Amino acid sequence: MKSPASSIIFKVNRREPELIAPSKPTPHEFKPLSDIDDQESLRCHIPAIQIYRHDSSIQGKDPVKVIREALAKALVFYYPFAGRLREGPKRKLTVECTGEGVWFIEADADFELEHSGNVLQPPFHFLDEFLSDVPDSNGIINCPLLLVQVTRLKCGGFVFALRRNHTMADNPGIVQFMTAVRELARGEHSPSILPVWERQVLSARNPPMTTCIHREYDDFTTKTPFPLDDLVHQAFFFGPNEIATLRSYAPLHIPRCTTMEIVTACLWKCRTIALQPNPLLEMRLLFPNNIRNKFTPELIPKGYYGNGFILSVAISTAKELVKNPLFYALELIRKAKTEMTREYVQSTADTLVIKGRPLFPVEGAYVISDVRNLGSREVDFGWGKALYGGPPKSFPILISHFVAFENRKGENGFVVPICLPAQVMERFVKELQILLPTAKPFNDGELAIDGHH
Length: 453
Hints:
- By secondary structure, the chain is α+β, with helices and mostly antiparallel strands.
- It has helices at residues 63-77, 127-130, 171-185, 240-247, 259-275, 318-323, 326-338, 342-354, 422-435, and strands at 12-14, 18-20, 30-32, 45-52, 84-87, 93-96, 102-109, 146-152, 158-165, 231-238, 282-290, 309-317, 365-370, 388-390, 399-406, 412-421.
- Helix 2 (127-130) links the parallel strand 7 (102-109) and strand 8 (146-152).
- The protein is globular, with a radius of gyration of 22 Å.
């Protein structure tokens, strides 16, 4: 396979997929998911990718063997992952802990990291090579809940890629699981944080009662507003200079805003202009609020690896978002964050049950998830921390992530993968460059994969 904008021709040889079961017997039982877990928007599979250099100090160790064995050990503690989801009355999801296991693929790629060009950099155009789809594996019901592929590189480095059923775990939850695999791979007998199920803490009351306004689940169309055959994936880097430039647009009367708030406002505005929507269309900016450690006393316990987030939503007509300065979007986002209370969390679970576990409205929606501080890059299986760790690309049109990243200049910041129709992407880049003249999609070899800046 040839890499676009690159002279690299490469091949990935994959072994037959195998099911990895827990290394010891585990309970056979039924565990219901929470009413946050099984909403329609989470009934999908989410990829993550980790890139590791060769480490000469552990010459002779095989990452495939190490991770395969550690995965089997981790599934003893996280045995629901080795089960299968069943759907009951009113679409309620329950995991049957069958111990059948998760998919594992062993692979080899015929190139070295330092010569990989844009093969292993956001937005990972070649993800399918490093996270191969197993036939009939991407359903939600009665399918394996995890798929892992470990790909050795010629230089001794490797790529760890994982795909999870989102109803089982959110981003913090899957990093907690990967950390357990890491600890067991490095000789620990049990994870430092033991997994906790306790999904009932985010379930609806009986009877359910909507007590807050939930515009994130308004009864609007869920039809995708664009054809999906002309999409372009790009990724944009935000470092100290870009953040400082965006902060200069914030007026003095707004208290110091966070990096997440100001960059999200910028992307929401530029994307809206690029889409050229009906001026009266309501544009929704949705962002997950991690409710771990958010309340006193804590609402969910330490070790909880289910979906421990609630969506916040900022709403504006396209016309107002386009014509107003950047701080208009910024203020809407800040206001949405203040509405997250314990009662809002409970009301969300109740509303999802009352409405039949719906999908959020798709037309006019944009979801931004900040995963910079989850510790993905710190997951060290014994070869050092990851060069890149986190979601590889955006979900077409709808979802982008902020992923911690170090560019070739040695600047620490984050990368934002974005997916839009080709003409919309052209307009988006132009609008972004009005606010940020330095902004541009990644060039070939942007990732500091050779260890030199």
